[in-house]
Design goal:
Blueprint (H helix, E strand, L loop, with lengths): L3 H10 L21 E7 L2 E8 L8 E4 L10 H7 L5 E5 L7 E2 L9 H14 L5 E5 L2 H12 L4 E7 L9 H13 L15 H7 L4 H15 L3 H9 L3 H6 L5 E6 L9 H7 L3 E6 L6 H4 L1 H12 L2
Parallel strand pairs: 3-4, 3-6, 6-7, 7-8, 8-9
Antiparallel strand pairs: 1-2, 2-4, 2-5
Helix pairs in contact: 1-5, 1-6, 2-12, 3-4
Amino acid sequence: MMSRRQMGGAVLATGALAAMPTRAQNNAVSGIWDTSGDVRRAGGVLHWRSVGKQGALPPLVLLHMLGGWSDDWRDVAALLGKDRRVIAFDLPGHGLSRWDGVPPQVQTVQETAGLIAGALQELGVSQADFAGMSLGGCVAVALAAAMPERVRRLVLPCCALGKGRTWAEVEAREADQVRTGMFSAAGDPLPGGPEVLRKVFGIRDAVRIAAEQNASRKAAGRWIRPQERGVGLTDFSVLLARISAPTLLIYGGRDTFFPPFRPIAEAALRDHRTVVLEQSSGFPVQDDPVPTAAAMRAFLDT
């Protein structure tokens, strides 16, 4: 069993087109993306980037983790973009997506799912395959539950799909995060090292991933807390039971954080397959992109 302190650290470790597509301007380190653009939605702008060309296979939409950005998916996107169009979004307040005014107290997964669905409609994508890790997976679950006609297949690598917490439990965890130096008292994310990533998630490339997380969390700033609250207050067993799309659950054999959520997802989903990448960590998208992409391709191409 993890302590509440470890749990808090692990969770954090874990309109019209505003412009025509342009050459990708990267907010992280890669150059694999072909195009990028912005879609203005109510109160803000969603940034997207893509690789690959539309062919016989449906587009694949990628959604990143809490405190991350679209470039977290760069290696998987490069592999899967060889025979389909792959679109990755920066979620509200993350990466290059920007919202007017101050962040809300809570940003629900349903609200974010609606923003993504609206943006895709404006990009001419009526149905797609979806993959999301951590926060991104939670948003994809909400979208698949509410708009089944928009989701052909769903991939969920390492997502904390719990049964929901009370507001008091959310506040207690946030107080722990301040005491342990993960957030300032004002709600700003503070830099972290690779130790938690190694110990809790079994990540091998922890130094690189920790550095990238510090950069992406700094970009997200005070938008992390509202999104985390939205996840924490949601009973995903209810949403998962509404999903009709075939779903792939992916876990890493070296991970200690996400596997306890596996029974909840497997019990609730109607049509699911589970793959455990025995030598992978709790961040398989970033730490082990080759086996992750292979598992996704085997599922999505059938």
